[in-house]
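Q: Please design a sequence for this.
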């Protein structure tokens, strides 16, 4: 009779011991960096009302048509969150975080879901860390967000990245620019890729995002947003650049780095890596002064970033960077007989309380099999326990690395291992 087997959904993977140590080390580094930048963690549910995402990103935009995982329960429509900013904005409004005063500096780490076609660096369940600085329109806030993001990569040693920078201006700058783009691309419509042609009337700025080969030469001569910025937007952009220079954070301006969504304003940035192939963005972000109002809050300026963890892992692997090695136990108790096993079980809490990592055989295996297991698990020491050892309170402590053995009393095990 054949057994039914079960697998993960396409584009979703299990994270297993051996790899998970990298993730844990990265998460610790993110938490520690956030602590130093004085950002506080926020955890929102993985499900949101579809309306929040659909309106937050604009009804007609790609992220909605780029299938999301949506489902209905009764009258309610839900979506597995495809990104973190709209949920944080929702939480900010729902929990009246504005009333706590000052700016809110929030960060998150967690899973996100997009029903895209899986490929390298693009999964259906992926993970992001990100931060949102809510309540400041200052260029200092933009630079603080960029500094926080780049600090993570710098500490890991991912140094061959490029920070691309642009400004999408304020709504008035953008309206003028959109019109200019439309006027420029309209006569070229026949030459555009189908996907870009479809965007011509709805969202011509998104044409600049196109990765289609046939669009590239047409994009090259397109008008640039920087020529359409209002004076205030230009000043903001100039200040961001000056502050980045002062912080020694290198960047390249990229006039075609745009965000098609209406709630984005002013600064836009992206961190790219040459080690990622076609999906080359490690992360990105920018200012979104209009979002909080769009999801029902008071007008509130904000800026943030989001970075993909899987892509960070791909980049660090390409550079030969290991964030953490799996570690074996300090002590493996090798036991002969039931009484010895019980003794080990009782002894371990005391050793663990003193900070030692302890394990034992849980399957009643032969001494030889237990020693082999201790080796496989890379235990530093094995303690061998049988009836005689228990009677005499004298145990063999084997240093698995040096292949040396010592005779120790029960109370001396911890001291010997820690010496
Ligand atoms: P976005 O919210 O699209 O700006 O994405 C921010 C970052 O999340 C990207 O730069 C990627 O590093 C990562 N990311 C986005 N979508 C995916 C995905 N489907 N699979 C893996 N990583 C992703």
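A: Design:
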């Amino acid at each position: 009779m054949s057994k039914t087997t079960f697998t993960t959904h396409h584009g979703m993977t299990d994270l297993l011991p051996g790899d998970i140590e990298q993730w844990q080390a990265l998460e610790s580094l993110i938490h520690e960096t956030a602590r130093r930048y004085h950002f506080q963690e926020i955890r929102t549910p993985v499900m949101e009302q579809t309306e929040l995402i659909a309106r937050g990103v604009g009804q007609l935009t790609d992220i909605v048509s780029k299938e999301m995982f949506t489902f209905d329960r009764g009258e309610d429509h839900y979506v597995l969150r495809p990104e973190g900013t709209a949920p944080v904005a929702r939480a900010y409004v729902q929990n009246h975080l504005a009333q706590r005063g000052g700016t809110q500096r929030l960060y998150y780490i967690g899973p996100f879901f997009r029903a895209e076609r899986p490929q390298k660096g693009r999964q259906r369940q992926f993970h992001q860390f990100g931060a949102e600085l809510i309540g400041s329109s200052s260029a200092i806030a933009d630079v603080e967000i960029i500094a926080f993001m780049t600090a993570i990569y710098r500490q890991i040693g991912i140094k061959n990245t490029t920070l691309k920078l642009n400004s999408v201006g304020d709504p008035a700058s953008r309206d003028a620019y959109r019109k200019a783009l439309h006027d420029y691309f309209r006569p070229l419509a026949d030459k555009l890729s189908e996907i870009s042609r479809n965007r011509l009337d709805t969202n011509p700025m998104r044409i600049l995002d196109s990765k289609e080969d046939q669009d590239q030469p047409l994009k090259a001569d397109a008008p640039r947003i920087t020529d359409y910025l209002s004076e205030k937007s230009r000043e903001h952009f100039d200040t961001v650049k000056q502050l980045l220079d002062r912080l020694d954070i290198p960047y390249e301006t990229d006039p075609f780095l745009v965000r098609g969504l209406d709630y984005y304003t002013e600064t836009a940035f992206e961190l790219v890596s040459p080690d990622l192939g076609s999906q080359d963005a490690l992360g990105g972000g920018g200012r979104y002064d209009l979002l909080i109002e769009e999801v029902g809050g008071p007008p509130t300026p904000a800026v943030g970033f989001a970075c993909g963890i899987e892509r960070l892992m791909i980049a660090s692997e390409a550079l030969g960077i290991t964030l953490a090695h799996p570690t074996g136990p300090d002590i493996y108790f090798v036991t002969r007989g039931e009484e010895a096993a019980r003794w080990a079980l009782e002894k371990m809490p005391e050793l663990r309380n003193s900070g030692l990592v302890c394990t034992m055989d849980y399957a009643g295996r032969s001494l030889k099999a237990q020693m082999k297991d201790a080796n496989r698990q890379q235990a530093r020491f094995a303690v061998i326990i049988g009836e005689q050892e228990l009677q005499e309170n004298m145990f063999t402590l084997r240093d698995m690395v040096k292949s040396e053995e010592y005779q120790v009393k029960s109370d001396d095990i911890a001291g010997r291992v820690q010496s």
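Q: Thanks. Anything notable?
A: The chain has a mean pLDDT of 93. The chain is about 35% helix and 20% strand.
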